[in-house]
Amino acid sequence: MGFSYAVAVVILLSSSLIFFGLVYDQFQTGNIQLDNSLANKNKIICGLENSKVSLSNYTVVKETTDFSITINLTNNGSTTLIMSNTNILFNGTEVKFSYSENYFLPLSAEEINVLYPRGNATVLLAFNTGYEKFIQVVYK
Fold first, then answer.
1. H or E element, residue 112
2. In what order do the strands lie in the sheet with 93-95?
3. Backbone angles phi, psi at 114, to 5 degrees
4. In what helix (H) or strand (E) does residue 113 lie, and over which residues does it extend?
5. Residue 123 near residue 89, CB atoms below 8 Å
């Protein structure tokens, strides 16, 4: 009876060590993923809080079939915005636009050009940091 008892204890201890090793590995992986997600969250919040764009002016010119809309913006925040990652919605519809520089640096100006079928529109600019700017464009 002594030998079978010793073998049973060894089997239980070794299976417990394997089990707790697997649990610890998964626990450690979860903690690393949680730390990475909190760091990304802080980076996103920092970028959002440090983004500020102001409207300098806009012009609307009637072309043959569409309206050419030019929006002049100034980056008053301390974060560089990436124009290729920016989305522009005219009346809720995403439109293609052109810009002069890909990096919209702090304290610099940027000009956005859009062709749109109507001269009046509610414009939403959504930048790569999550910052959004609403503009009401009116054709005069």
1. strand 109-116
2. 93-95, 87-90, 121-126, 132-137
3. -140, 140
4. strand 109-116
5. yes
pLDDT of residue 71: 94
The answer to whether 124 touches 134, Cβ cutoff 8 Å, is: yes
Q: State the amino acid at position 113 in one-letter form.
A: N
- Looking at residue 10, what is its pLDDT? 87
Tens of pLDDT, residue by residue over 31-76, are 999 999 999 999 889 988 999 999 989 999 988 888 999 999 999 9
| Beta strands 53-62; 67-75: pairing state | antiparallel
CA 105 to chain centroid, in Å, comes to 17
Find out whether 58 and 71 touch, Cβ atoms under 8 Å. yes
From the candidate CATH numbers 3.90.650.10, 2.60.40.10, 3.40.50.2300, 2.40.420.20, the one assigned to the domain spanning 52-137: 2.60.40.10
The answer to whether residues 84 and 58 touch, using CB atoms and an 8 Å cutoff, is no
